[in-house]
């Protein structure tokens, strides 16, 4: 469902009359009933263009379903009163009122720029109170015999929400995490000290590096007022799973372009189906054309689509791991250690690019080693370099050269998604000894590559950090094969 709100127009008068005169809707409303067309038209004409109110229509997939708005907009005291009525019965109980209310609240705080929204509700109106509390309104008090309903004076609660409280709640319950757990591993190899940073524990759809990137992308989606998402990736893509999940949670349509050459049923593809994203399959040679066609069609249908490159590629994705590098430095300071090496799975390149840029900005001497899970050099290393230099250009820093990129392609095997017996053994060892699941496509392959790289280059007596960049659902795709290896 695409839930949107738009300003009330004259064409909406008949719907308003129908909804307000419906006894299933007007129990707690305070209108002079029944509403009539001429009076409602006069109301519309008299209120059109007023700055102290905002009257809007809730639409679902372009169909008008209810009323929502702000009354008594007081710029001096920076506050306004909220109201909502969902008029069509078949759209009730589907989360539409919540999604529409969130859009209105953000419009009030970000466009009108008021500080507080308040509302009044009869104490018997329990269903409305549940909605208000889910959105983040807090009960501020009881107003005794506050309003007359028919022949009776009734009590009402007053609810309110302030801008800072709303955004603090949104961060804490949806997107906020201070860091992710970093643990010492039991791995014994060349007398090195091994640590793992558990980005897979980020509390969004099994976490991972794609969750960090998605957080920033969806902030940009809100900033640009986009109303649907287009991206691409394989059926094993952690990125597509995360984007599909967050889009579903926000009520945004999500379209995923997926190459048929890498199409298979995985835990990630099943979850994407659960989130009701539309998967559009095409040959890998037709991906670019299919993306452009999909975006154009959505625009023709009246949407404002937001395109995210596969894997969260781009400066926004790079920024996510510039931020992560700061977390790593903070951990080092807290624990009094220094990581000589940071290893991780390198795919589309922005994770490695972000770590490299973080290293440059913080002037440290840590070796950033990206273990490729798919691409070969020179292309793979160049992609990382391009991401690094794109980010550095935006912040007006000097470019790097390819010699400064440690993109290791020795452990790609036959390409993306391919693994061997040694990778399965590595996954089993880490799970049994440390209780941490890795997968054959990303983290297990990179962890095995890290061990082989350390042996090959005779790295000894160092502090080594491995970043678990996620992929836990994929662990279960190969569980039977792991069992058979026992």
Automatic annotation (TrEMBL):
One of its GO terms (molecular function) is acyltransferase activity, transferring groups other than amino-acyl groups. It comes from the Bacteria. Its cofactor is pyridoxal 5'-phosphate. Residues 3-161 form the N-acetyltransferase domain. PROSITE patterns: GNAT. GO terms for biological process: alpha-amino acid metabolic process. Keywords: Pyridoxal phosphate. Belongs to the ACC deaminase/D-cysteine desulfhydrase family. PANTHER family: 1-AMINOCYCLOPROPANE-1-CARBOXYLATE DEAMINASE-RELATED. This is Pyridoxal-phosphate dependent enzyme. It comes from Anaerosalibacter bizertensis.
